[in-house]
Amino acid sequence: MKQISQYIAIVFFTVSCMNNHLKKNIQQFIGQEIILSSDWKAMYKGRDTVLTDFREIDVKMVIFNDSLLCGSCQAGRMFEWNDIVAYADSSSQKFFIIYLFSPRKEDINRLNISLKANKFNYPIFIDINSSFIKQNPHLPKNQQLHTFLLDKNNKVVLVGSPLFNPALWELYKSTIQKMIDNDGVLPDQ
What we know:
about 190 residues, alpha/beta, seven-stranded mixed β-sheet
């Protein structure tokens, strides 16, 4: 019995430390400027396209899939974002989602095939040269922090994936609306 309570205490302490570490990472990331590149390959509905004006949109959500994730697996799950895409589509081009893949060189072909097969109805970007990571060395390593909201100055405002978290998605929507109403920044900035 004593061993079980010690085990529970260790697990509880570990989870608490992980949560504190995550909170610290989020606090350090909020307010950081993110550089968005124009050298990414863009695809729309499975076809190569050219998009350059996305950087001019005031409010942007970045969904970053780095080389540690299976890019073709993530591409096959893009439909999970359909509700959030519909919200972005309804914003009259005041809110834009940047789906960014940064695959390993040996995975680029497989990712391209998956994106062409899935024909997601929203622009997808592929960072073939890993410029996003190079230009933003302050990006957290934790995958949970690779979805974030940017204001018009490309500063991080919110962090975390709202995909399966309705409360976080409500926070995103209210923050996005406040930023749209205030020319791309939060009123208290």
